[in-house]
Amino acid sequence: MTFGTARFVAADDEPASAPLFRRDLQLDDGHGLVTAAVLSLSALGICEAWINGVPVSDALLTPGWTSYEWRLHYVDHDVTTLLAKDSTLGIAVGNGWYRGRLGWIETARYGEEIAAWAQLRICFEDGHEQVVVTDETWSVGPSEIVANDFYDGQIIDARLRDESWKMPGFSSPDWGSVHVVDYDPEQFDLDPAAPVRRIDELPPQRTWYGPSGTTLIDFGENIVGFVRLEIRGTPGTTITVRQAEVLEDGELALRTLRSAKSTDVYILSGGDDVFEPTFTFHGFRYAEIIGWDAPLRDVEAAASAIAISSDLRRIGSFECSVPDLNQLHENVVRGMRGNFVDIPTDCPQRDERLGWTGDLSAFAPTAAYLFDVQDFLADWLRDVALEQDHHDGVVPYIVPDVLKYATVAQEGAGAEEIAAFWSDAAVWVPWSLWEAYGDPRVLDETFESMVTYGRRLRSLLSSTGVWDTGFQFGDWLDPDAPADEPGAAKAHPGVVATACAYRSAARISATATVLGHAAEAAEFKSMADGLRAAFHREYVHSGMILSDCTTVYSLAIVFGLLEPEQEAWAGERLAELVQESGFHISTGFAGTPFINDALTSTGQTATAYRLLLQRECPSWLYPVTMGATTIWERWNSMLPDGSINPGGMTSFNHYALGAVADWMHRVVGGLAPLEPGYRKILIAPDIGPGIDWARSSLATPHGHAEVSWARSGDDVRFDVTIPRGSVGVFRRRGRPDQELPPGTHQVIAPVREPIDAAPVQ
Predict the structure, then answer these.
(1) Distances in Å between the alpha carbon of 513 and those of 355, 382, 680, 732?
(2) Checking phi first, is residue 528 left (phi over 0); if not, alpha (psi -120 to 50) or beta?
(3) Can you give the pLDDT at residue 751?
(4) Catalytic one among 221, 387, 633, 706?
(5) 381-384: long-range contacts at Cβ-Cβ below 8 A with a sequence spacing of 24 or more?
(6) Which of 352, 387, 523, 706 is catalytic?
(7) Taking 90 as the threshold, does the pLDDT of residue 455 lie above it?
(8) Per-residue confidence (pLDDT) for residue 15, from 0 to 100
(9) Which of 74, 307, 412, 675 could form a disulfide with 225 if both were Cys (CB 3.0 to 4.6 A apart)?
(10) 602 touches 571 (CB < 8 A)
(11) How far is residue 217's CA from residue 210's CA, in Å, rounded to a whole number?
C-alpha cells in the first residue's frame, strides 16, 4: 500500500506523558457523498484514535509489539460513518513497548520519542479521493494521563480531562507544534492478527479490609488487564489501586512482581469519573484500594476487572468426568489468553512479559488446538526470522529481543548463541501450525529461517556428534532443582540438547520434503541420522539413558530416537521412575510436554493417568487444589502452607507447564490430526483409570469434529463426528484401523476390545 506523505510526528515540547495529537479537516466540496473512508493508524508507542469524539475502534495497544528496529505494524479502520463535513481526527500516544520499561535488568529503550502516524483516505461518489496524513500541520497537547508504563502502571488526573480537543474548532494555549520523526522500518505491515480487546468484565467476588486497613478485592480469577473504577468524590482525591496475583499473610503478594509496581493512581475531578488505564496492563486476581474511605458495598459497585487479550477465535474444547481436570484445562485456556497479548509472552505481571521462545516450543500444539493462532503466530515468526537475520543466524531466547540492549551482562539475555528447546522454536512452532491447519505457506515463509537454524546448530556439535557445548537451559524448572537454581535439573543438558537437535533436523528435512526441496531434505535427513547415531553412541548404554531420569526417557521415546525394542524397556524404566516418585511430576520445561505421550505410546497408560490425576505437590492438579485459576511457572509457586516460593522467579500465570493439555486433547479426548490440517483425523482415545468419560471438539479447517466417550460397565461408547472433506481413522491398540467417512458414528466396544463402528441413522 502507498502511504503518500504520511510521517511519524512527535511533540516539539512533549507533555509529561501520553501526548494528544489532533488535526481538523473539511471534506472536499463538489464530489458527492463519501462512499468509503479508511484510517490507517500506527505509532512509535501505542495509540488510540477518535473522529469527532467517537473511538475509531475498540482495539487496545495498537500497533502492538514487533521487532521495531526493522518492522512495524499498522492497522486499518473503516471510519466512513464517523465523518462529517467538519471533522477532527485525534490520536493519543502512550509509551507501550517502544519507550516503556522492558526486562528485569537495565535496558535501553527502543527510542526516546513516541510518535503518531496516520493516513485517512476518503473516497467520494465521483471517484475523487481526499487524503489526510500526519505531518507538521498537526498540533499536540497534554492529556489527563500523567504517567504510563506497562510494569509500573498509569496515573490519570481526571481534573485535566477536556474532551473538547476531539471536536472541530478546539484551541488552547497549552497546545503546541510537532516535528517529523525520522523512522523508516524495513517492513511496514498491515497487522494480520486479531487485535487486543477487552474480552471480559469481572465484578468483585469478595471485598474486605486487610490487616493494614486497606480495602482488598478478590475478582475470583487471575486475569490480565486493569481495574475499572466508576466513582464520584472530592476534587483532587487520590485513589491508588495496586494489583497482585495472590495473597500472602492476608496482604497482596508483591515480592513476585520484582521491580514492577503494578500500581495505578486515579485523581478525582469532582464529577462522575470513569477510570480505565488502557495504556498499561497487569496480571492479577486481587486489588488493593488505598485512599478511598467508602463502605465496601460502594467499592463493589464501583470496581470491576477488565480482562484483555488478543481476540483470537476459540476453536477447541475438552471436558471430562473429573472436575479438577476441567479446572486444569480452564486454567490452561485462561493462562494462554492472558499471555497472548499481541505476542506470546511468558508471564503478564512482573518486570518481564517477554516473548520467550522456550515457552512456545512447549505450548504451540496446545495453543493451535484451543484457538485459531495461525495468523498470530505466523506474524510472530516473522520477527523470529528478523532477529535471527540480525543476530548472525542466532535465534534468540526472546522475540522481539529487547534484551540485546541490556547494559548489564547476564547469561540468557541478549543471546550470543542458540540454545536447545528455546531456539528450536524456529522449527517447532511452524511445524505445529502446519500440523494444525494444513497450510504450507507457514512452512514456505519460515523455511529459510529453519535451514539457517539447522546449519547453525550443526556447527555447534562436538567432535562426538552430540550437542554438549555452550550455554543450555536444559530441563528448566525441574521440580527437584533448588528454588534459586532453576536450571539445576536431573537431566543431562547434552542429552536434552541432542534430542532436541535430532527433532529439529528431522522436522527441517520433513519441511523440505513438503516444499519439494530435495537437496535440503537429504541434507537434514543425514544430519538427523548422524545425531541419532551419536545419541546412541554417547548416551544409551546397558538399557539406560545417561542421567536416568524421566525427562531423558520421555524425549528419547517421543522424538523417535530409539528402536522399537529399546522403546519397550525405556517405557518400562520411565514408568518405574514415575512410580518411584510417588506418581509426582519430576520433569521441567523440556520433559513435561512429552512425559505422558512417552508413557501411553509404550503401553504405560495407567501410569500416565495416575501421574495426571496426582493432587499432591508437585503435580498438575496441586495448583488446582490450592485454588489456582491459571497455570503456575513453578510446580510449587505456592507452598502447601500458603506461602510463596522463596525463589526470585515465581509467577502464577505461565502457560508452558500447561502443555499437558495437548496430550489430553489427543489421547484422553482422542482427537488428533493424522494428516496436517485434520484431512485425516485420528480417533484413538487411550482410556485409563480414573476418568469415566471425556469429550473433545475442534473447528478444523474442514468443519466441526468431535469425539466423546463414556464407560458403561465393561463397555465404552464412542460418539464421533467427522466433517466433510475429512476422513476419520478409528484406532484401538492391537486391532486394525477402521476408516470412518464424514458424518456421525457410534461405537460400542469393550474397554480393551473394539468392535465395528456404525453410522448413526
Answers:
(1) 30, 22, 19, 30
(2) alpha
(3) 77
(4) 633
(5) 381/426, 381/429, 381/430, 381/442, 381/445, 381/446, 381/449, 382/71, 382/187, 382/189, 382/445, 383/66, 383/67, 383/71, 383/343, 383/355, 384/357, 384/425, 384/426, 384/429, 384/446, 384/449
(6) 352
(7) yes
(8) 75
(9) 307
(10) yes
(11) 10
Q: Kindly give the pairing relationship between strand 196-202 and strand 303-310.
A: antiparallel
Q: CB of 710 within 8 A of CB of 740?
A: no
Q: What is the percent of the chain where pLDDT is above 90?
A: 91
Report the amino acid identity of residue 92.
Answer: A
Coil, helix or strand for 266?
strand
Whole-angstrom distance between the N-terminal and C-terminal Cα of the chain? 53
Taking alpha carbons only, the member of 666, 659, 535 closest to residue 595 is 659
List, in order, residues 6 or more apart from 485 with CB less than 8 Å away: none
Does residue 312 sit in helix, strand or coil? coil
Beta bridge partners, 225, equal: 282, 307
The model's pLDDT over 710-760, given as tens digits with 9 standing for 90+, comes to 998 889 999 999 999 999 999 988 789 999 999 999 988 887 644 444 444
Contact 124, 33 (CB under 8 A): yes
User: Which run of H or of E encompasses 746?
Assistant: strand 743-750
| DSSP label at residue 461 | -
* Burial of 513 from C-beta contacts in 10 A (0-12 / 13-18 / 19+): middle
Grid cell 489427543 is found at: 666
Separation CA 100–CA 347 (nearest Å): 17
Please say if 633 is a catalytic residue. yes
Which class for 397: exposed (0-12), middle (13-18), buried (19 or more C-beta within 10 A)? buried
pLDDT class for 414, splitting at 50, 70, 90? low
pLDDT tens digit string along 670-720? 999 999 999 999 999 999 999 999 999 999 999 999 999 999 888 999 999
Q: Please give the backbone phi and psi of residue 260, each rounded to the nearest 5 degrees, phi first.
A: -70, 130
How far is the C-alpha of 527 from the C-alpha of 509, rounded, in Å?
9
